[in-house]
Amino acid sequence: MKLIPTLVFIITLLHSTAQAADIASALKAPKNPPIKVAFVLSEGAVMIDFAGPWEVFTDVHLPGKDMDMQARMPFELYTVAPTKAMIHTSGNRHPGMQVTPDYDFSDAPEPDVVVLGAQQGGPGLTTWLKKIHADHKVILSVCTGAFLLAETGLLDGKQATTHHGAEDEFAQQYPKIKVKHAVRYVQSDPTIFTAGGLSSGIDLALHVVEEYYGREVAQNTANVMEYRGTDWKKP
After folding, report:
1. Strand 192-195 to strand 185-189: parallel, antiparallel, or no bridges (unpaired)?
2. Three-class SS string for the chain?
3. Which of 19, 34, 95, 190 could staple 76 via S-S, CB 3.0–4.6 A?
4. pLDDT in tens, 75-122
5. Could you tell me if 201 and 231 are in contact, meaning their C-beta atoms sit under 8 angstroms apart?
6. What is the pTM for the complete model shown?
């Protein structure tokens, strides 16, 4: 009879180890770029949440003297929203910058990566994110964008993080999520990542670049940006 608890423990340990190995698996760069990156925008979109990762992916340049400049830039960026109507980003005392999205959820090219920062959200977002995940594409939330991602149920039973000032609310509102505190970003499953607040989106984007193209390319990107943070680096 004593063998049963031991057997259960071993099975649980093996299952946990397999899950950890699965989550730790590296992203694979496609043989034929570009990697399409869709930035979700809606009213109140926090500037640095999308502008930080936008700059990271813009500044990635692959090495190679024989390649033209366009070919050396592997990421193609665009914006997507509930509608193509102009939105206002976050502002101070008045609405922020005006942005007209490139696409809405009905006509956007299917992305390889989605960036979802803090914002109001809107109709169709949950369904679109579920489809993206079902197609095994990468989803990055930044700051309280994690709340919008949590609404899909895709974070249930997984680790995730958000802005430090919203962690308690996040845990209370979504009790099925294992909230990680005081971290810059968390890999929730093989294709979902959640970042803390604001500038942590830069770290997460650099981490994704490293996963695709290695430490040297990611470090060169950080150097171009004059970014001195090191939290993006894998242990």
Report:
1. antiparallel
2. CCHHHHHHHHHHHHHHHHHHHHHCCCCCCCCCCCEEEEEECCCCECHHHHHHHHHHHHCCCCCCCCCCCCCCCCEEEEEEECCCCCEEECCCCCCCCEECCCEECCCCCCCCEEEECCCCCCCCHHHHHHHHHHCCCEEEEECCHHHHHHCCCCCCCCEECCCHHHHHHHHHHCCCCEECCCCCEEEEECCEEEECCCCHHHHHHHHHHHHHHCHHHHHHHHHHCCCCCCCCCCC
3. 34
4. 999 999 999 999 999 999 999 999 999 999 999 999 999 999 999 999
5. no
6. 0.90
